Amino acid sequence: MLVAVRKIQKALGEDRVSIEQDDIESHGYSEWSTSNSTGRPVAIVTPRSTEEVSAIVKICTEHRTPMIPFGAGSSVEGNFSSPFSGICIDLSGMNRILAFHEEDMNITVQAGVRWTDMNEKIKSANLFMPMDPSPTAYVGGMIATNCSGTNAMKYGTMKDWVVNLTVVLPNGTVIKTKRRPRKSSAGYNLNALFTGSEGTLGIITEATLKLAILPDETSIGVATFPTVKDATAAASKLIRAGVPLAALEFMDEVQMSVINQNGGAGGRKWTEKPTLFLKFTGTKDSMNEAIRQTQKLIPGYTSDRLIFASTASERESLWAARKEALWALLAVRPENTEIWSTDVAVPLSRLAEIVDLSKKESGNLGLFSTVLGHVGDGNFHQAVMYNPKDPEQYQAVKACVSRMMRRALEMEGTISGEHGIGIGKKDYLKEELGDSTIQLMRALKRSVDP
Amino acid sequence: MLVAVRKIQKALGEDRVSIEQDDIESHGYSEWSTSNSTGRPVAIVTPRSTEEVSAIVKICTEHRTPMIPFGAGSSVEGNFSSPFSGICIDLSGMNRILAFHEEDMNITVQAGVRWTDMNEKIKSANLFMPMDPSPTAYVGGMIATNCSGTNAMKYGTMKDWVVNLTVVLPNGTVIKTKRRPRKSSAGYNLNALFTGSEGTLGIITEATLKLAILPDETSIGVATFPTVKDATAAASKLIRAGVPLAALEFMDEVQMSVINQNGGAGGRKWTEKPTLFLKFTGTKDSMNEAIRQTQKLIPGYTSDRLIFASTASERESLWAARKEALWALLAVRPENTEIWSTDVAVPLSRLAEIVDLSKKESGNLGLFSTVLGHVGDGNFHQAVMYNPKDPEQYQAVKACVSRMMRRALEMEGTISGEHGIGIGKKDYLKEELGDSTIQLMRALKRSVDP
């Protein structure tokens, strides 16, 4: 491993390789993440181009040294852990926009571009890339985990926004998955194979992404309900009626109180009840029509219990409450505790039931726990605060999360709606997919990385 | 090969295997298809379940007999050709809807279900699967070619509608790619790997498909333009302004005259000029707003040159003109001629240029040729009528199509927007993707089918 480090130092220059303890720690452990390993990389390398990544990969492969691609480090399932040590390839130095094709509505970027920066830069062309995971995330990591976020209800997931990828394969070969057509049926869908492969098949170094037109208008609605079941039932009703929502998010009463404790995301005092956040986008007329449909479908929620934002700043403050949920949790977390945050997804009709059951069960732990979710996709997140050094607490939370995953599988759902598998959920993936399907995935992995 | 046929007869019953010359011909050759091989299968087998497909596949693999999955036979690039003979597995007997999950908005079907039949059956639940290739197509073939059609502009392509697949691998193993969540980031995206793999990685026997809510209202607009360039420029303008169109289709003056010759799709007499067909769907208010936007963006097209359908039957007749384009062509085709129909896709900004150039060049052939396309996706089709027995004509058309594909590649496009590669475009795929990418695809193929 150290020979590989020296070779990389020689190839890229000393200043591009760090063996500082702080760097190693910040690239090997994350307080945001549920799963961390005790392993740490021996060095952090910072390439600036696809060619440099290829050079690094060739050296690592030659010396049989594990490689861990690292983006913004905001994933939550231990996706960038280094259980077998190795060399961490930090892509933050690859943060250039390579080409913005305004008329084609796509953009080519390096993997280390932050999506929020990218969207800010193309805003004036009235375009944006609609996926919205953590505001800190990089494009490369977003693709590697097939991320989504609150906009998935309207815009799908990351795989739907990839036009082509430049990937460095485990032997150092550089491939490009496609040219730049908006639609294609030429050959195997390598875009989709690498999207969500979590760095196991190659390192994504560049990507061309589709862009969407920024909606003329956005409106946010917030509705509170007496119980979690009432809230999820209302959500199902809106979905099934085809109300053109851009997003449909749920936060439970605990999460709402956390938001209040943490300053209310812009100073608002929220009702601490199960709450739906609704986003409407489009032209003025179409948006107002969707709002009218919503008011009709959720009767009795016309006044204080169904609020609509009228100004841009009010709108931002309402939505900020949802987007800042994880940070609010981290801020109110007592010392020595960590957050076990995880997500599952089930068919729409089972969502109310699984949210209700999971909430009851995690409530029984006697620990602080909360539920929030992208209910428009049947996807929800549960977060439990616990002391990782207390073995009893650790085991209890682990068992509770495990039961939630099993329940999702029994309901024909998945153990991961959008965070990926990482090291946290490896054991359950086999249960979800069965031996034959896992064997096929292994065969695919071997064919790319013999 | 004959031993395999006998074993299959024994396993499934004599009546499920046909060696009739008519059957063999209709499963080995298609007048709809540009590319046909001289090879023919030795027998047609008609399984009724995944287990039967698995039994057939095991026998074929044991006897090293080529297998050709066959759906509705409506593909156009020789996707079901049998150049090395073998056994044709006709999935038309697998035409059952296995489970309709209305509340989850998905449906599980066997591969031989016709999408138009399926949509008819679930209409009363206000749901539909929005892909619209040939009305004859089966779900299995639609997935195998990653089909799309006119609705792709709003609803994406087939890969976006697959929740899970049951696939028989080349060794006979049956796998299921996922359970039934609407969203998932668990493991490699096998749905996308098999979607568009054209039967080369396994045989799709069952699929769960996402469904969408039927739009409240549909309106069709038709606009004629003096030149092809004017029409495609108007199309780009609408796309770039973000007008929420459900579909945006183009037909040239030749195609419009073919429609007239063929009865005008409901008796209408069309203006024989380059024409855009626009589809608007949604609620009444949102649709009317989109129509107003369109009228503003295409000035001077308010009266006779931009027609909107006001009644359902008028709407159907307008859209029928577009949907029946291929049939209209087949109907007016002179004896002894065939249609060389193919599709390419390019970045949006290059569409006007490539359509114009391709039209000029095919015009120079002195043959009957026409252009139509899903311009909302940068995807268009060219059809040339020629006499396949005239070697000079054949070579001239082949060279012309070849130049069109090269031009699409120079413009960073693809040689196939939605029809797949089949046997017709194999040689060009390497040019599109490069050696390394093709090698990766080969490695994937080998890993699944050693």
Automatic annotation (TrEMBL), chains A, B:
Domain FAD-binding PCMH-type: 37-214
This protein's UniProt keywords: FAD, Flavoprotein, Oxidoreductase
Cofactor: FAD
Single GO BP term: lactate catabolic process
An MF annotation (GO) of this entry: D-lactate dehydrogenase (cytochrome) activity
GO CC terms of this entry: mitochondrion
InterPro entries: FAD-bd_oxidored_4_C, FAD-bd_PCMH, FAD-bd_PCMH-like_sf, FAD-bd_PCMH_sub2, FAD-linked_Oxase-like_C, Oxid_FAD_bind_N, Vanillyl_alc_oxidase_C-sub2
SUPFAM superfamilies: FAD-binding/transporter-associated domain-like, FAD-linked oxidases, C-terminal domain
PANTHER family per UniProt: D-LACTATE DEHYDROGENASE (PTHR11748), DEHYDROGENASE (CYTOCHROME), PUTATIVE (AFU_ORTHOLOGUE AFUA_1G17520)-RELATED (PTHR11748:SF83)
Family label: Belongs to the FAD-binding oxidoreductase/transferase type 4 family.
Protein name: FAD-binding PCMH-type domain-containing protein
Organism: Penicillium frequentans
